[in-house]
Amino acid sequence: MDKNKKNLVFISHANENDDFADDIKLLLEEAKKKLKLVGIIYKANRNYLESGKWKENLIQEVNESECIVPIFTKTSIKNKWVSFEVGIAETINIQNYKYMTILYKIPFLR
């Protein structure tokens, strides 16, 4: 893991998919233990919206993450926050960013 990154993973999801994102976070935490990895599995919780510096806080959390895991569902593909968070990752470090995309119950994939 990059020494400048505190988060191993940043999970981006719509609030409506919070329970599913929690399940993904638990699975990643287990994998982290088994692989003896160090770092935080950070699940976007939008607490950064409460401060006047929400944009800076969000950019910092994404920038301090080794990998972004966007969860795309019927709800999240229309969600501005998921798009914004993925866009930040693309803007910050488009060449070196790692993604693990999760597609869950999207009707057009059936």
Helix content: 25-40%
Question: Termini distance?
Answer: 36 Å
Uncertain residue segments: none
Domain count: 1
Class derived from helix and strand content: alpha/beta
CATH hierarchy: architecture: 3-Layer(aba) Sandwich
How does the overall form come out from the CA principal axes? globular
Mean pLDDT: 80
Beta-strand percentage range: 15-25%
The number of helical elements comes to 3
Number of strands: 5
Task: Give the biggest beta sheet.
Answer: 5 strands, parallel
Spell the H/E element sequence: EHEHEHEE
CATH class: Alpha Beta
How many whole angstroms does the radius of gyration measure?
14 Å
For this structure, the CATH topology is: Rossmann fold
Characterize the structure shown.
- It is built from three helices and five strands.
- By secondary structure, it is of the alpha/beta class.
- β1, α1 and β2 form a beta-alpha-beta unit.
- α2 packs across α3.
